């Protein structure tokens, strides 16, 4: 992951796991909420992202439970995952700051704050 | 088991068995939790986006981009190598066409003997040649690790032959499958290898810069032999199909030289598949003159040798590839 930019789903999955370990559908729900309903991950996509994050040791298996006879695995963020997320958040924040400054110069602070530029 | 669960498990069969052994139960759990309310009476089935996500995952797993050296990683490397070699071949063809355009230019207007429709076809073929140069840049982009640019350019270079095929079909009022299938296969196999093999899990790999020059040097060496300039038509007959010959030579090299990287034999076997069909259009030729008989004989002989070499490459691959596939990265942290 360090040599590649983080995809949006990976960013949201890591963010979803900041507070507590979650299982597959728990992550899907959390990502949907974090993105304001914009990102609804399909199961195949979720496990592709989890595979990549696990291979990069950004998330690990926390525990397994059996619910209604089916296996449920919980994943949690590693310290390396938290650092990667922090770095990505800082990068995105810097991008937002740059864009906001330019837009402020063009439209004025008030309209940017209202989002009506 | 509900109908929906049964259908979803059926979709999951797209994934390799080893991956399913590791992941199937939790994927089913996640899917069914997200499908709460779906009942058998409504004939519930996984949505197309859900199926597509599993199919995409299956490709990424089967053509893995990194991690421990499992068979999937090696197959991924083989497919990516096939894409590189295939694109390299089309870059070679592009350079040959470019050389012919510069050294032996044809008039832009088609000869007046044909009908208007044939004139359109000739012009379309000429435009196809010119636009096909995009593949030269696509190859350079892939060599230098610019995968996205390579995919876009390769897609562009694919459009002209498709347009010519469409023009040909409209001129002759039918699709000539026997003539076009070999061309389509030869184009589609490297293109699909590029599009599927270089997925988002694959780290960009830069090849040495001199690799860009290989198609140029090969085209410079082949041009006088190919009869493009009308220099040596007899040799051109013997070397009727440079791609097939190159695969045979490289394939035999792989079989003889034991220390060849393991991705090469399967990559060459993949590329050999469409080449086997190359002589198909000759099947309708009447073998009335020595030149035609020679051409058909060379093409058929080359295809037969290709089949033998491809089978031996597959057998070599089966011996050298690991048979156990693992799904890495989900070990519990201590």
List keywords for this structure.
heterodimer, A: alpha+beta, three-stranded antiparallel beta sheet, 58% helix, B: mainly alpha
Explain this structure.
The complex is a heterodimer of chains A (about 120) and B (about 325). Chain A contains five helices and three strands; from the N terminus they run H-E-H-H-E-E-H-H. Chain A has about 120 residues and is of the alpha+beta class. Chain A has a three-stranded antiparallel beta sheet. In chain A, strand 2 (about 60-65) and strand 3 (about 70-75) form a beta hairpin. Chain A is elongated, with a radius of gyration of 17 Å. The termini of chain A are far apart. The mean pLDDT of chain A is about 90. By secondary structure, chain B is mostly helical. Chain B contains 13 helices and no strands. Mean pLDDT of chain B is about 80; it is low at about 330-334. In chain B, helix 4 crosses helix 8, helix 4 (about 70-105) crosses helix 9 and helix 11 (about 240-255) runs antiparallel to helix 12 (about 265-275).
Summarize the structure.
Chain A has 117 residues and is an alpha+beta fold.
What does the average pLDDT of chain A come to? 89
* Number of beta strands of chain B: 0
Let me know the number of strands of chain A: 3
* Shape designation of chain A: elongated
What structural category characterises the helix and strand content of chain B? mainly alpha
**Helix segment tally of chain B:** 13
Helix share bin of chain A = 55-70%
